[in-house]
Amino acid sequence: MKSLALFAGLSVAGVLIWQASFAAFSATTTNGSNTWSTGTVSFGANSPATALFTASAVKPGSTGTACVKITYTGSLAAVVKLYLKNADLTGTLGQYLTLQINEGTGSASDCSDFVQSANDYNATGLADTTKTLSTFNTASNSYATGVSSWAAATNATKTYQFKYQVQDNNAAQNSTASATFTWEAQNT
């Protein structure tokens, strides 16, 4: 039994000596929790949800003006452009609707407080009958070809004024047009 106790004591002493010979100083450090989150590119809830125009029984010389205020609510700086996708223009009346688009400030949908800062399409005005809804669609049908290039920051607003006039062309009789304009923001 003595020899067993001696053997156990020597074994414990050996383990302690072995652990002590591998002891070393050490230190570690960490930084705070690293996190990532993406920003947003978005428009406010008050941005256009309804049609600018609902005109029926129009005739040569009929005109209309409407304004829409766009609010950019994204957290990232973005460039906003306006265009009309090919699939979003239907009917044949578009070729007889002279169109002008301006940008500026104001809040009234009837443009009573609109102050123009730039012209986006048809600077000459409704007298230039070559600038129609259809030609706008041909020229500006994607973000790459869109008009405006508004450099928007969070909660910035821009008002767009749309004007149209029905051309004096007998071929415009009994025709329709429907268009859904698109504003797109892409971060820079």
Textual characterization of the structure:
The protein has 188 residues and is an alpha+beta fold. The chain has a domain at 63-169 and 179-187. Helix content is 14%, strand content 32%. The chain has helices at residues 2-21, 133-139; strands at 63-72, 78-83, 89-91, 97-105, 115-121, 147-152, 156-166, 177-179, 182-187. A four-stranded antiparallel beta sheet has the order 1-7-4-5, with helices on one face. A three-stranded antiparallel beta sheet has the order 6-2-9, with no helix packed on it. A two-stranded antiparallel sheet has the order 3-8. The longest helix is centred in the N-terminal third of the chain and has 20 residues, at 2-21. The mean pLDDT is 87.
Give the topology.
Elements: H1 2-21, E1 63-72, E2 78-83, E3 89-91, E4 97-105, E5 115-121, H2 133-139, E6 147-152, E7 156-166, E8 177-179, E9 182-187
Antiparallel strand pairs: 1-7, 2-6, 2-9, 3-8, 4-5, 4-7
